[in-house]
């Protein structure tokens, strides 16, 4: 499959999303021809932030988390933002989506705090990941291996996990997503 024939799901809470960790994959994948759906907790506007502090861009979600299914997509993207992921990691719809993607053998890409969702979904055990250093202990306590790297791609347990640490790593992160979709 090529990027331009793929369907990508990006999931977020409606506020606290790290702006570039959402907008770069969203815009770059759309520009490459992917059909990208932004799903949020509600259909209210999604308020992003820069560095968890400064007001960022506001986006309109395409769907609610409760209305999308993993079977309709080829890859899942989980952007960071401390407040964003702190909320979706306890959201049953987000947890179920992540579990369904993994159980269907579909790739999941998580940047910065995004891997927190995968910890709560019980998907990190046996995986190597490179999220932000602030959740390294969470990754290890969940049975995963944390590495401080711009990009880690792990195919263990029957599904591909793509992780990067921070916005500075977005070139690597988006590149790996495109590769997973058949660039």
Strand coverage percent? 25-35%
Distance between the termini: 8 Å
CATH topology grouping: Rossmann fold
Mean pLDDT over the residues = 97
How many domains make up the 3D coordinates?
1
The CATH architecture classification is: 3-Layer(aba) Sandwich
CATH superfamily, please?
Class I glutamine amidotransferase (GATase) domain
Number of helices: 6
Taking the sheet with the most strands, its summary is: 7 strands, mixed
Structural class: alpha/beta
- Tertiary shape: globular
What low-confidence regions span 5 or more consecutive residues with pLDDT below 50? none
In spatial order, strands of the major sheet run 6-3-1-7-8-12-11
Walk me through the structure.
With 183 residues, the protein is α/β, with parallel strands linked by helices. It has a single domain, classed as Class I glutamine amidotransferase (GATase) domain (Rossmann fold, 3-Layer(aba) Sandwich). Helices cover 30% and strands 26% of the residues. It is built from 6 helices and 12 strands. Strand 4 and strand 5 form a beta hairpin. Helix 1 packs across helix 6. The longest helix is centred in the N-terminal third of the chain and has 13 residues. One of its GO terms (molecular function) is transferase activity.
């Amino acid at each position: 499959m090529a990027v331009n024939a793929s369907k990508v799901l990006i999931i977020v809470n409606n506020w606290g999303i790290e702006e570039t960790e959402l907008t770069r994959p969203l815009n770059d994948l759309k520009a490459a021809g992917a059909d990208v759906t932004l799903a949020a907790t509600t259909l209210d506007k999604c308020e992003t932030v820069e560095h968890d502090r400064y007001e960022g861009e506001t986006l309109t979600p395409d769907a609610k988390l409760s209305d999308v299914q993993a079977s309709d997509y080829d890859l899942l993207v989980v952007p960071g933002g401390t407040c964003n992921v702190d909320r979706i990691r306890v959201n049953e719809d987000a947890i179920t989506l992540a579990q369904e993607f993994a159980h269907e053998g579909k790739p999941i890409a998580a940047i910065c705090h995004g891997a927190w969702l995968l910890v709560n979904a019980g998907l990190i055990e046996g995986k190597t990941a490179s999220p932000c250093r602030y959740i390294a202990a969470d990754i290890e306590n969940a049975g995963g291996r944390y590495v401080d790297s711009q990009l880690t791609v792990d195919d263990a347990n029957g599904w591909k996990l793509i992780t990067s640490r921070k916005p500075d790593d977005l070139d690597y992160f988006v590149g790996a997503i495109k590769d997973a979709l058949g660039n």
